[in-house]
Design brief:
With 83 residues, this protein is mainly beta. The protein contains no helices and five strands. It has one domain: Nucleic acid-binding proteins (OB fold (Dihydrolipoamide Acetyltransferase, E2P)), CATH 2.40.50.140. It has a five-stranded antiparallel sheet with strand order 1-5-2-3-4, with no helix packed on it.
């Protein structure tokens, strides 16, 4: 989760998507942001937990807000679904 960029930092990356913020937590040096890629409020496989550095001047995303997230092509790992 720590190699995922948010907002303008995500725009130019190979993999970037719109995501809806479900929950955000301030944890001192980092922000945990729980997002849904489908925009549906579900506990399904489309949910991701992001961990981004807490930088001065960066507002904590609010639940329901749509944000852009992304990661570099070499930062993605794909695991087979277990039967």
């Amino acid at each position: 989760p720590e190699r995922i960029a948010v907002g303008g930092d995500a725009q130019g990356l190979h993999n970037h998507f719109q995501a809806r913020v479900e929950h955000a937590s301030y944890l001192g040096a980092i922000l945990d942001i729980d997002v849904s890629l489908s925009g549906q409020d579900s506990a399904g496989s489309d949910r991701m937990l992001l961990q981004i550095p807490n930088k001065a001047g960066v507002a904590e995303p609010k639940p329901g807000e749509t944000i852009t997230i992304g990661w570099a092509e070499d930062a993605g790992l794909v695991y087979p679904r277990e039967a």
